[in-house]
């Protein structure tokens, strides 16, 4: 059969609630097979267009039938689930009946609609269930007595490069092995359970079993659903009996793959992490992308010699046949329609565009049954002889050591042994009749409790229903609360609890739920130290529960109480359906983070989403730290990026820390033994959290993880300079050529005072020499288009916490000669009151309006860092476990916070002016009281300007007074004019006006005799009274200005 390209379809979904809340804009358009995407950041840019086999518009234009099925509204181009099946699923089914291998895989970012297209939701079944249903309908229509059908079903999950059988309760440590068939070269999963099925109902029940298994694993933190690949394999055999009595087997393997979320590996920003390479978060998808690129190059003939890297991941090994092999393959790419997901959606489109270039060579898998059996027996004989002869003899290879040869020999022996066992299992299957195997499987299937019979009980009895971050896994686990007591705990407890949970922070005896005729109460088991939250609040004592209350057991087990006996007890403000997102927002609110989206900008909403995403991860990692006793604690920190790096920002930015360009969502790790801290960016933390999950899984598997090398420990980090806090130095004084000296508060990310920093800002020449005070200007625009230099001096600091005495330095960045320059002071060690006296001259070759604007509304952020060292902790602390250390640290911080608040209140009572640098509290960390500091600087500046003007005015009054006391004969106007002019020209625009008044006076003096000082005084008073503050006419102006000037 000639080569056939992979068929590619794309499908765009409706806006989800998150996108609606953020007023997202539509960026996807479809016309026929063409799909185009517009860049929201460049609206005038031409949209990027792609052509695919199918472009499905499912964004809008639909209506819901009475049975819940969505269908196109009149005249719309909406693509329903049925249409997608008819184009894609029907083709898979037809090819299976013809004997071809088929593969269908869904690709796209988390939440883009992959699972909806593959599995569906509610009454809107996806491709997989419809295909299975239609397959059995076709089988039931068969009337040929010489043709029989055998269908087997398997379901597995790939997470962290480990394979887990979702139809088996017992999975080996490290997952199932993936082996390569030495004859065919294809990979298969060893000991994967393949269940015979005889109807769609049986497949549906097995799918629900696999989904429940995924849910339990996800909740126990063995896997995160958005990072796992799910592979459903249906083997469809047709055995056809000929007239001569021989049988021919036509076999088709259908792989239906729901891939993990395709978030770009760089979108989390895990840069600079020493353990980044060790994380397998996106390894499978990255390997799949490399395989697709290599196959596309092969198909296009752009490169002659290409090694397709199938072996780079478990996923690509299992998809080897689907991509570039013996299979008819379809890819469906799920698209988000929203502008906020532009980058990921564009990446998906490019991925799909690459995949359509791949060509496969599909052939009909049809062979006589007796031939297949004969070949299996012959192969088994060869394999047995190889094993009996002492294994495989390895010849010396170039560059291979004896140890490597021995390792390779053992690996090949294992593969041969595994293949021998697999062949024997296949022969045993052929010897056992299909009907016997099917009957045995049906007996097992009937025992599976999928909750179908529980629907009636849900209307009569209270129960707990699970919540999961994956909507497909929510509502899967149900626990009914019988009258009396229902115990919650681990299965290794004695007696065994009624509800068995496992995973992080679940104690043997965790909690007890009481049901007294529909009145539900819950209580933690005394002395167990268990963690339970009700509606986001920690459970203390015994508490009554209401309908729809949210319960979090440990770190991951989230449930909703449904009480049909007391539905009126539910809070009226609750939504109709409680979701995972709602429960997480509730927890975030209790922790002090704002969760409402009303009035938030796009950037603020992004920060908020990142916080809500990372909060449950931080709780999870803290729980692992406690369980493994790692003496580390973690907390979410929102910190200004400019402050973190020590940059300069405008006042409008500084007072609005919620700008996405300024706020970084970070996580602070703290060593509870010596107080050392580290700030991890969000991406680095997500990578570390993934590695911490791996470590915890090894711990659960029984491995000793207490003595791993520190370089491999995700909880360990080498010491680094820690940000003590930041200070904002505002620059208004530079606009008037005034020097400025102040003692600034150093505030940490929580807004708590960590010390003071004394700095000086003064205009200077290019060599740093301070300019004369006479350079003061009243109008900053006089400085435009001239060179400008100023000197920033960091003089001294005073730090409160003794642990920073090992060394202190200050860093900041500033634009010098048109280029950003990083500046840092020398490190001063062994003191909490360092003297830096570090000066930096900053030059502006030609002052522009933007520089003046920055002087007026900008600031330089000075970041104060402390040197950290691995010091020996207090011996008393070594006796405490991680949980006790956390509690002690929290108590100490709370006590210090209370003391600091009391001290600030006392300072306020003593001197409210001295407290002008107080802070305002918001949800964001690293608030440096920018508004207050800015106002304080303005006050100081105005005071300085007033003092300068007052000083000049006093000098002019002194000159006028001296002149007025002279006899008329000694009154010489030229020297008097020069003296006043010299003072006026050095004080700015306002006093220069006085010089113009003196010029008018000189002109009048030639023609009019000047009256005495007293007369002038009287005249001035009269004039002032007459004008009453109004501007006099031009004629009056000449008369009043001269006399007013003399008075001044």
TrEMBL record:
**Where does the record place the region Disordered?**
1009-1048
For this protein, what is any one GO molecular function term?
microtubule binding
What PROSITE patterns does the database record attribute to this sequence? FHA_DOMAIN, KINESIN_MOTOR_1, KINESIN_MOTOR_2
Q: Which domain of life is it from?
A: Eukaryota
* Coiled coil (residue ranges): 932-966
User: Is the keyword ATP-binding assigned to this protein?
Assistant: yes
Protein name as catalogued: Kinesin-like protein 6
The UniProt entry lists membrane topology as:
Peripheral membrane protein
A Gene Ontology cellular component where this protein is annotated is:
mitochondrial membrane
Q: Which GO terms describe its biological process?
A: microtubule-based movement
Composition bias (Polar residues) maps to 1030-1048
Biased composition range(s): Low complexity? 1016-1028
Annotated residues that bind ATP are located at: 108-115
Subcellular localization, as worded in the UniProt entry: Mitochondrion membrane
Pinpoint the Kinesin motor domain residues: 5-358
Q: What does this protein do?
A: Microtubule-dependent motor protein required for mitochondrion morphology and transport of mitochondria in neuronal cells.
Q: Where is the FHA domain?
A: 486-539
The record's section on PANTHER family has:
STAR-RELATED LIPID TRANSFER PROTEIN 9
In terms of InterPro entries, this protein maps to: C2_domain_sf, FHA_dom, Kinesin-like_KIF1-typ, Kinesin_motor_CS, Kinesin_motor_dom, Kinesin_motor_dom_sf, P-loop_NTPase, SMAD_FHA_dom_sf
The record ties this protein, via CDD domains, to: C2, FHA_KIF28P, KISc_KIF1A_KIF1B
Q: Any keyword Transmembrane?
A: no
By sequence similarity, the record places it as follows: Belongs to the TRAFAC class myosin-kinesin ATPase superfamily. Kinesin family.
Alphabetic keyword roster: ATP-binding, Coiled coil, Membrane, Mitochondrion, Motor protein, Nucleotide-binding, Transport
